[in-house]
Structure formats: structure tokens, C-alpha cells
Amino acid sequence: HLLNIFKVFAFNHINVKNSVVEIMSLSFLLIAIFTLLNINQIDGQNTLNFDTQSGLDTWNADSLLSMKIIGGTKAKFASTPYQVSVRLNGYHFCGGSIIANDVVLTAAHCIFKDQLNNYQVQYGVDNVGKTANIVKIAKITTHEKFNKDTIDYDVAVIKLTAPIRLGVWAKIIPLAKANPPAGANAVVVGWGQTDENGPTVQQLQSINVKIVAPKVCSQKYKKIDKITDRMICAGVSGGGKGTCGGDSGGPLAVNGQQVGIVSWGVGCAHPDFPGVYSSVAKLRSWITAHMK
Asked: Which residues, other chains included, contact 156 with Cβ-Cβ below 8 Å and sequence gap of 6+?
């Protein structure tokens, strides 16, 4: 009941993008209440080396950051084998993608400096309730210009301690060299909530969305905050389908290439606000430089 009270309060106060910081702080309080842990966001670039250990908590700040799959259907994992679960305290926390056999791409806002020993990556599964294919993390690098207030430069590279066994259920997704055109068909998958006030799910969900023109997206968000050159937008006309808590960090793909990273938005599958994603093309040089 306490969780629901905080969640209703949070969702009712996502009126402007800068409220994200207050919402994240509120969810930190929830984590402290239920796990006696104090979690803080990494600021700037932080290259961190650590061994991963499992933990117990399932709740996460992204649930209140409005990034989940709503209106989706059960995903056919064989069509998106690049998708991974970034786990925190032994449970699914954010999405990610395989961009090399020992490198995963995710969002910078998914990384918390006080929980470094509790991160893992799980690959090759469509159900995160399973315990197969879990790999420890050796190093995480977040973009040095990441801004937790504007959510700009929202990208992080995760280096694994051991290579992923590539195959039918685990494949590398190529990084796009240019942003897709407006109207292009895109797919996004994740284990986020399927209802705004509901829990995250264990079964992978999928939705099809369309790329929104930058000028159109900027106009929709003009009273919220700036859509920068490092961001692209995608959604469906009329809303009803979108991403939210638990999907952050996951890939947005067009024609088999990753064009975006699930980043932020207002509300969940809101008809007036498409989802905002970090642009892989604009951040590609930084990503490739930090894959070593």
C-alpha cells in the first residue's frame, strides 16, 4: 500500500521534465524504506571497476521516470536477440543491448554509484524470472556530459567480465550511423510495466512505433524542456503504446539497427508526448570509443 501511495503521488506530479529529479529522489526514499539502501545518481563520466554480487530489491527509480512497455504484446525473442536485462540486486532493473560480445549499451540514468557491486547483465532469455545466462560486470562508463536534470547525453557502456555466448538467442545489434527518417517503423521491447501503476513484468513485451520528426517532437515538448540533438522521438498516433519504468536503457531499432536508447518521457504512452530516446547516431563516436 505504501508503494502505491508513493507511485500515485509521483505520477500525478510528472508535469514538467525537470520534475524527474524530484521523482527519482522520491523513489530513492522508497528503496531506502524497503532495503535500507541509499542510492545516488552518477554525475558526469565515471569509469568504475567492480565485481558483481546479487541482492534482493526489485523496485527501481525508473518506474517513476515513465519508461515502460504499454500496449505491447508478447515479444518473439528470436526477433530481438540483442535485448538484455541490466539487473540490480539480483532482479531486472533496466534494459540494454548487445553491441559486442562483451559490451552492453544502456542509459546513463540507469547507473547508481552506491549500487555498483549489485549490477549484472542477463542475456538470451525472454523471461527475467529465470536465472540463466547471468554475467558479471567489469566496468561501467557513463557519458561525461550526462545531465540528470535535462537527461541529455543519456548513455552508458557496460563492459562484461566474460564474453556472451553468441547464437540464435544472443546477437550483436549494429549501431546506426544516421538518425532514421520521420515516419520510419521502429520496434522497442522490454520488461517494463504494462500498466502505469502496475509492476514490471517477467515476460518480454514488444511494441511497434513510428519515428517522430524532430520539429514535431520539439513542439510537443516546448513547455517541458528542450529536445536536443542527442535525442530522437518515437510513438504512435493517439498514444496507448509506449515505454516506461523498467524499459529504460533498452534499444529502439529500425531495420535491424539500433537507432535509440530508451531515455525519458512525460506520462506513459501519453497521446500528446512521444517517447524520447538517446540518439545512437549522434552518440556513436563516444560509444565506440568506450567499448574497449
From this structure: 105, 106, 107, 108, 110, 111, 140, 141, 142, 143, 146, 249
